[in-house]
Amino acid sequence: MGDRFEPQVHCRYFNGYKPCGKNDVCSGTCPHREIVKTRVLLIHLGALGAVVRSTSLLRAIRRKYAACHLTWVTQAPADALLRGHPLIDRVMTTSREDLLALSSLEFDIGFCIDKSLVAAGIIAQTHVDQIFGFVADARAGAIVPATPAADNLWQIGLSNKKKFFENLLPETQLVADALELTTFARDEYELPLDSQERREVANRRSQWAPSEQIVVGLNTGCSSVIPYKKLPVESQRKIAIDLINAGFCVALLGGPEDTARNEQIAFGLPVISTPTTRGLRDGLMSVAACDVVVTGDSLGMHMAIAMKKWVVAWFGPTCAHEIDLYDRGVKVLSFAGCSPCWSRTCNKSPMCYDLVEVQAILSGVVRGAEWLKGKQTSSFKLHF
User: Fold this and answer.
1) pTM here?
2) Homologous superfamily, domain 36-178
3) Domain at 195-375: CATH architecture
4) pLDDT digits over 137-162, tens only?
């Protein structure tokens, strides 16, 4: 190959089959050339909100492994949220084609965040010199820590007492510690929008609130795994009515599973019904167009944290202490004596979502409005 060509094979942007887009000519004098010192594999398949949360690890990974090339393996449709990310060099899924491509690669470092046999199987079939996080004990057929550093997070998952009452650390710190990413720096989620998406966000914002009202997004739903992480329709309507009466603009957020529900909430009310069937990136733009987001512990909450919104998050079945709002929000806890529980099925009456104070949520929104006013970076007019 010759001295002139050889270094480019190890450039972060070199792929070997098309121009990288950084320079017209691939040469040893390219100003964009970054020689890779460490090949890193990160496996986090799901859930969607947890994948968004794990973007907080990217800065720490690149601090510890300077000049690294990072490949992230996830499950569709989470890949749509990660593609084009400036801190991720390659995004792959669990599709047959991607796993076949993955088998041709070698890595110095592997991070397996999921405590699942599928994730453990992927990393076991990939050439990785050193693994952090979790692996499978092949004979036991169970997930175990890859290194002693992951033992604390592993133990928390095995004990309701530890998870619900003894642990006080956010999941971001627990995972960073488990992966041995040096001193925890409370890095933010990172989920950047591209230029076209930013223009669309500005367009939606101006259409929704031409009078410069504060836009409050109501994230009305959640995944089907724990369906009790969403408030009843009646509670959502009361919140919307009270916010409208206080002078806020209200936008209903959600995914395809929330379409019919949002129609019920919106009936007869002057609210914005954002698109629910255009995919994750479109939903992210709607969140970005809001100023404050009211939400349960769901993907929408993690999107709002990533977009650095003021978040009013309510918690019933899940653990509020595991979530870091980065000093931009309030947590409203259910008064249910059995909360948290992480139960996927429940027939108790009243339910934990019935024991969430609507007034506490409204007060959280007002605090968000004051926070926005205190930033002195907007001209939003408060009407309450």
Assistant:
1) 0.91
2) Glycogen Phosphorylase B; (3.40.50.2000)
3) 3-Layer(aba) Sandwich (3.40)
4) 999 999 999 999 999 999 999 999 99
